[in-house]
Amino acid sequence: MNTMCQQINQKHYLYALGLVVPWCIYRWYKGSRRVTKKEDKYVYITGCDSGFGNLLARHLDKQGFNVIAACYTEKGEEELKNITSDRLATLHLDVADSKSVAKAAALIKTLVGPKGLWAVVNNAGIALPSGPTDWMTIYDYKNMLAVNLCGVIDVTLSVLPLIKKAKGRVVNVASVFGRVSAFGGPYCVSKFGVESFNDSLRLNMAPFGIKVACIEPGFFKTNVTDTVAMKNNLRQLWERLPQDVKEDYGPDYLQASIDMLEQRFNMLTDGNLMKVVYCMEHAISAVYPQTRYSAGWDAKFFWLPAAYLPTSIADRLFRGNAPPFKPKV
Fold first, then answer.
1. pLDDT, tens only, 161-196
2. What is a GO molecular function of this protein (predicted)?
3. SS3 of residue 214 by DSSP
4. Is 187 one of the annotated active-site residues of the chain?
5. What is the CA radius of gyration of the chain?
6. Which residues of 297-306 are buried (b: 16+ CB within 10 A; e: fewer)?
7. How many whole angstroms separate alpha carbon 102 and alpha carbon 95?
8. Which of 51, 143, 181, 213 is most deeply packed, by most CB within 10 A?
9. 42, 44, 187, 249: which is the annotated catalytic residue?
């Protein structure tokens, strides 16, 4: 009897395997198809001074797309022009300034003409200040939200009519910390907002043939995760705290935070930025792009699974990885 049950179970496994393998092959084939006539398609990328945006601009330029790279600095524009083809155009952009966003959109409208804009990649963002919530001021939140969230919305709305013409793409760079809030400060708040904007935009734009994708990177070695800047940020936040808040945390908390930050970042950060760039490129050039892309082993196997844990378990996990201290109060 036991032998018969084992044989039935084995058949069930084989049937399941027989369904999974063809599905995986179909999904791979569907994802491998690419759009044609790249030379006629314009792609607008924000935050191209360095990091993901800079690499994506260069990568798409080599593939034949007409790249419009928005940089915050003149130096970023000049360096990008020197290493790319004549197809690539640069412009100055401050995503937190609506006048700058509108000026860029007017220039892009002239560049793309009646064909419209194939894709916009909202990549520009900042990560500092970052620290415990009671170390922050409302201005810290407003300044980061102006770039990471309002900037994404402003840039998207400014070129959405052009994307409708091309039935193109909107690619928003969020973070795994738009799915799970593992630390205090405005960064996670801003990325949760990007996720929400992305989802509502995807639903609203589907009738127009526009595809909206969200990129959710884990920890990568960029200016955003520079440990020197992060440690200096913690020191500056500590120095401006009222004395009573410092006493709440104790004199050893700052150094413990710095030591843990360096340890975690050295362990988690990935130096291969192309993992994220390939996700961005697929969202732009695939005939059937995904709605979400998780880039990095830590995103796939730790942060995203943690987002689905019961709140009590997730809280215990994250508190266990915070600097230890006994509050004075």
1. 999 999 999 999 999 999 988 888 999 999 999 999
2. oxidoreductase activity
3. strand
4. yes
5. 23
6. ebbeebbbeb
7. 10
8. 213
9. 187
